[in-house]
Amino acid sequence: QFTFLLRYWRRTKNRSALSMVEKTIEMMRRGGIYDHAGFGFHRYSTDRKWTVPHFEKMLYDQATMAIACLETFQATGRAFYADIAREIFSYVMLEMTSPEGGFYSAQDADTEGKEGKYYLWTQEEISKVLDREDAKLAAAVFNFSPEGNFKEAESIKPGGNILFMTKSLEQLAGDTGMDLDGLKKRLEQVRKRLYAARNERVRPLKDDKIMTDWNGLMIAAFARGGQVLKQDVYTEIAARAARFILEKMSAGDGKLLHRYRAGQAAIDGMLDDYAFFTWGLIELYGATFDPGHLMRALAVN
C-alpha cells in the first residue's frame, strides 16, 4: 500500500497520497509497534494508535517497511525515513542473519510463556538501568507510568510499560529545552543502556527457518538500501544472502527449494519463492550493474 501510494503520488501529483504514507510511517515509528530499544517492527498493532503490538517480529515486515521508508526518503528527502531504514537493517544484521548469510524467518512474541514480557519495563527496572535524569527523560519520551501504561501488562508483568512516543523529537526538544541533536544523542545513549539490560533477560525464541521468498524480499531491501543510501555493506549483505539461496536452496536447472533449516533444504519452490527471489536479484543488478545477477535472475525458473 505504501509503495502503491508513492507511485500514485508520483504519477498524479496528488499530495494527499504522499501525506498518507508519511503520516502512517511516522505514527508507526512513534508507536509501540516499533521496538524503540532494539529496532525493527513488530508484526501488527492491536489498536488503532499503533501502541500495543503483537510482539512477534517477521522478516517480511522488516523488508517491506525498509523498502517503503527508502522510497519515502527518495520522495521527500527527509533523513527521518532513511534513518528508519538504517535501524531496520541494523536489527536484521544483528538478530536475523545466519552465519551462512541467509535471513531467519521470525522472532517469537513470547518469553517464559508470556507474550511481550521481554519488551516491557517497570518503573523500578528503568530506575536501575538509568540514572535519575535519564530515567526522567525516558519517562517523558516513552510515556512510562508507575502503574504501567497499558492494561494487558497486568497479566504479563505488573506495572509493565511498553515504549512508545506521542510526540515527535522536534516537539520533545521544545518541551525539554534541548537542541534536537543533543536530544538525539542522549536518547541514543538511553536506548543502548536499555538494549543492553534487556539482553540480560530470557530472550524470545527465534524461528531459524530460512525461506526463499522472504529472503528474496530482504535481499531486495538490502540491495535497494545499498543503492539509495550509498552503503556498500548493505549491497554485500544482499549478495551474500543471494549466494546462500543459490548454493543451498537450489535444486538445479533453475529450480528453487522453499525452506532451509539445520543444514537441510526441502519443499519445492512456490510462486512467491520465484517471484521474490527474482526481484532480489534484479535489485542487486540495479545496485551493482553486475550482469551476473541479471543472468541468474533470468535462469531462475
Characterise the protein shown here.
- It is a single chain.
- The protein is of the alpha+beta class and 301 residues long.
- The chain has 13 helices and 11 strands.
- Strands 8, 9, 10 and 11 form a 4-stranded antiparallel β-sheet that branches. It has a 3-stranded antiparallel β-sheet with strand order 3-4-7. A two-stranded antiparallel ribbon has the order 1-2.
- A hairpin with a 2-residue loop joins strand 10 and strand 11.
- The two termini are 28 Å apart.
- 39% of the residues are buried.
- The mean pLDDT is 95.
Q: Which structural class fits the helix and strand makeup?
A: alpha+beta
Give the tally of β-strands.
11
Categorize the overall geometry: globular
Give Rg in angstroms: 20 Å
Poorly predicted segments: none
The topology string of helices and strands comes to: HHEEEHHEEEHHHHHEEHHEEEHH
How is the main sheet built?
4 strands, antiparallel
Average pLDDT confidence is 95
Distance between the termini: 28 Å
Total number of helical segments?
Answer: 13
